[in-house]
Amino acid sequence: MADTDMSDVQESDCEDIHCPPGRDYDTFMQETAGIRQLYEAGVPFFTKEQLQDLSRQLKQAENSDKPEILIKGLEGTEETFEVKTGVTRAGSEPGTEWVLKAPAIEYRTFGFLTSYRAYQMDGYSDLSLRVLHYMELRDEVTKELLPGFRYAVDSIDIIKNSFTSCIQTWEASESYAQLQEIVESRENFPPITKIVALALGSMQPRSLNNWDHRSEFQHALALTLRDIVGKRQGETSGNVQCYVQDPAYTEVDKSILKTYNITILEDPDAFVEIDASTIVLTFAPDVPVRQIVADIARPAMMIWNTCEEERWMHNGREQFMYDYLPYQLRVFSS
Ligand SMILES: C[S@@+](CC[C@H](N)C(=O)[O-])C[C@H]1O[C@@H](n2cnc3c(N)ncnc32)[C@H](O)[C@@H]1O
C-alpha cells in the first residue's frame, strides 16, 4: 500500500474516466508534447547522476532534523518531498493504525508520463522520479503488524535451510545444466565483473500455504552465475561481485545473503552499479527495470522473465535489448 498513487499505466490511452475539468485530450497532448519531444530526441529519462543525487539525498534524510528530498523534472519542474517515516494514520478498523515505512522511489517511465489515464487522474507531470512512502497496518497498542503485513516464518534457521535446499534442487536441475553449458561454451563471452540482481523478493514467506520459494531459486541462480562465470574467466568467484537490491529484504534475508558474500544495496544504488561488464537479473519487478537500464547502461547480459505486455519493447528505447545485447536469456515462467 502506497501513501501516494502508484498505479503505473504504461501506455497512452484515450479511455474517458472521471477527471477534473481542463484535462481533455487536446490539452493533454499539448501539455505532454515536450515530454514526447525529449523522448524522440533521445534524452534519457533516468541517468546515473540523477540516481546518485537521489541516493545521496535519501541517505542524508535519514539523519536530518528536517528531512526533505528535492526532485527535478525533465522540463524543469521541481518537487520537494517531505520524509515522514514512522508517522501514523488511523486504520480503517478500530485499534489499528497505518505506519509509514522508509521512503521508496517511484520510477515514472515515458509510457507513464504520456499516459492519458495518468494525466486525467493527476494532471501534467515531468517527474521521472518521485518519492513516496509505503504503509503497513499494525495494532495501535502492541504495534504488531497485522496478518498480510507480517511474515509467516521468522526463524533464520528455517529460511537458511530452505534456501540451502533450493540451491541443491536448482543445481541438480536441467535448467542449471543448460545455463552452465551456455556460459562455458559460448565464444567471445564478454568480461564480467558484476552480477546485479534486482527485485528477487524476500525469502521470508508471508503465508505458509503460498510459500513458492521463487525468491530462493532466483537467488540460487544469482549465486550460480557468479560461480560459473568466475570459473569460466579462470578467476576465483570472489572476483565477480554479486549485488542485490530489493526494498522488501528483511533482516533475516540480509543476514543470510551476507553469509553468501552477496552485497545488499539500497534503492537506487544497484542501478548505479550496472555497466558494460554486468549481468543484470530481474524477475517480475515492481519497478520498470528495462526502461531504467535502457537509459543508464548497456550491460553485457540480461536475464529476465517474459513480460505480458511487450509492446514497448518493439517501439521504445528498450529495443536495444533485442538488437544490441550480445547475450540475453529470457526465462519463460508461468
Ligand atoms: C512481484 S514481486 C517479484 C518477486 C520475485 N522476483 C518473484 O518472482 O516472485 C516484485 C518485487 O519487486 C521489488 N521491488 C520494488 N521496488 C523495487 C526497487 N526499487 N528495486 C528492486 N526491487 C524492487 C518488490 O519488493 C518485490 O519483491
Walk me through the structure.
This protein has 13 helices and 11 strands. With 334 residues, it is of the alpha/beta class. The strands form 3 sheets. Strands 8-7-6-9-10-11 form a 6-stranded parallel sheet. Strands 3-4-5 form a 3-stranded antiparallel sheet, with no helix packed on it. Helix content is 36%, strand content 19%. Helix 6 crosses helix 8 and helix 7 runs parallel beside helix 8. This is SRR1-like domain-containing protein. It holds the Pfam family SRR1. InterPro entries: SRR1-like.
CATH class of the largest domain: Alpha Beta
Strand order of the largest sheet: 8-7-6-9-10-11
Radius of gyration: 21 Å
At the third CATH level, what is the topology name of the largest domain? Rossmann fold
Question: N- to C-terminal separation?
Answer: 25 Å
Shape: globular
Helix-strand sequence: HHHEEEEHHEHHEHEHEHEHEHHE
Helix/strand/pairing class, anyone?
alpha/beta
CATH arch. level architecture of the largest domain:
3-Layer(aba) Sandwich
- Helix count from the secondary structure assignment: 13
Low-confidence stretches: 4-14
Overall mean pLDDT score?
87
Taken together, the total number of domains comes to 2
Q: Count the beta strands.
A: 11
What small-molecule ligands were found? S-adenosylmethionine
- The proportion of residues in beta strands is 15-25%
Helix share, percent: 25-40%
